[in-house]
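Table S4 entry, ATPase.
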Amino acid sequence: MVESIAGGRSLPAEVLDQIAIKTDGVPLFIEELTKTILESDLLVARNGSLVLRGPLPPFAIPSTLQDSLMARLDRLAPVKEVAQIGAVIGREFSHQLLAAVSPLPQSELEDSLDQLLKSELVFRRGIPPHATYVFKHALVQDAAYATLLRSRKQQLHARVAQVLREHFPAQAEAEPEVLAAHYTKAGLTDEAIAYWLLAGRWATERSANVEAISHLTAGLELLEGQPASPERAKRELMLQISLAVPLTAAKGYAAPETARAYTRARELCGALGDTSQLFPAMYGEWVYHMVKAHQRKARRVAQEFLRVAEQHRAPDGIVVAHRSLGLTLLNLGQLSAAREQMVQVVALYDPEAHRSLAFRYGQDPRAVGLSFLAWIEWLLGYPDVALKHSQEAIALARDLAHATTTAYALSVAPYVHHFCGDLAGTHKAAKAAVVFCEEERNPFWLAMARVIWGWVLAEEGEVERGLAELRSGLDGWRETDSAWLLPCYHALFAQVLVKADRSEQALEALDQALATMRETGERLYESELHRLRGELLLRLSPQQNGGRAEMEYLKALEIARNQAAASLELRAGTSLARLWRDQDKCSEARDLLAAVYRRFTEGFGTEDLARAKALLHALH
């Protein structure tokens, strides 16, 4: 390798020994150290070989790759400044930007670049002035950068940022993080913070959540060094509000980092008397309590949110507040009130004015409203309408091309198909949700999708695989610090455990779900939990548990009626009617089930209604 670099000429043995010792066989170091020696005055050509001019000085050959690269740059003194400016710009830099930043005349600049190219420290793509240069290795860039004094580095970074803003506005707009980095290294903190905020928001709009978190955190870290003032507080408020959105996507709504960002934003709103960012901060406080399953507290925050939004006559805030209150009321089992709120979301939503809300609050309120309006409509007894709303939510999310909104709509949709007893539809919807959320690395919605995907696999015969997938979803849900919907998830878990012939464990899962529900106040699936418990008791011992199962079914019926949850009332009524039939109470069974069945006006092709109809025929 050394002879090849030396053009086929051999080097003295003692020089080769030094190269071998110092490079330890690292190819890049061998190449650079050999070129350093060839460019020095240590050797002279004689009879086709290279020999030492005299004794080899003890420190003549650099000991590190960094030393070797710096030695080469020092011997290229006329072009060293060009390499330094290029290193400040980055590993790769354009001819036009370099020319705009460098003070050298065009002819001198081109001569210097030619020398750098001959040294093979830099490579070129294209033809000047449209050429792009790239340092051979990041270590070469580091070496050139290291030769600059700190004050000179700051001057050059400031100059690069200025040139980008004034002469390359399109690039500056597309890559605000580049200007932010240059302003940071230039020590121009105010400008750097402003551009880190722009970079974070731009990354959030592209659903590049990890990048957004990094950019916004960089801005907050710079802000820490500034003295307290109203202006500092305003900047922190904008950064915290902007940071909370990608944090929800990357870590979850109830993650400590997300909660800290929203809590701090609410504190700053209060200190500044600023209402412009108050609604996102209040939304953050609500979503934290909702996802942690503090449902009663979530309702109080949502009600305050709506009151303040209406007081300030803020259309954006009103739409989001209705959505927040609607979802909370659904969780509490207050279905008719929940429906009223979600209908308001859909009615008040202005596609033009409210399209940007997805980026401010993390997801589009209308798509979310439609997604959970689908759940509400199914519970109220309108399965066809429910499926229609679910598909509308997905279509809107895809039209918006907003990743978190799409993840939201896709992950909620398979549960609607599941409620309707549509296994094929649940399979298709759950698979789509899992694939999308995996691609977008959205742990919160991926966990929700995996829970229902595990149920699908078990229903299709892959019981152990389904059980593993469902458990993975539950674990992922808890890892995002979420407790919301756990009663519903445990109901699915119990059904899969039954298929795995683990009925005792299934009963424990249902008891855990009911205990969780009593603790959190999350009652939307309460009726179904009691019904499933009755089914399990009968499965374990039909003779001994008939009375206990009947009590569970009656409890399920009472809860469903109080909630106006017609679909859950139908399920409980069907289970109780079947039990009464087996107890020779056919007349009571028929009267009970017929009264529930006749209230339905649609969804007659769904599994629940078909099962109820078949049982009614049998009872007649």
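The chain has a mean pLDDT of 90.
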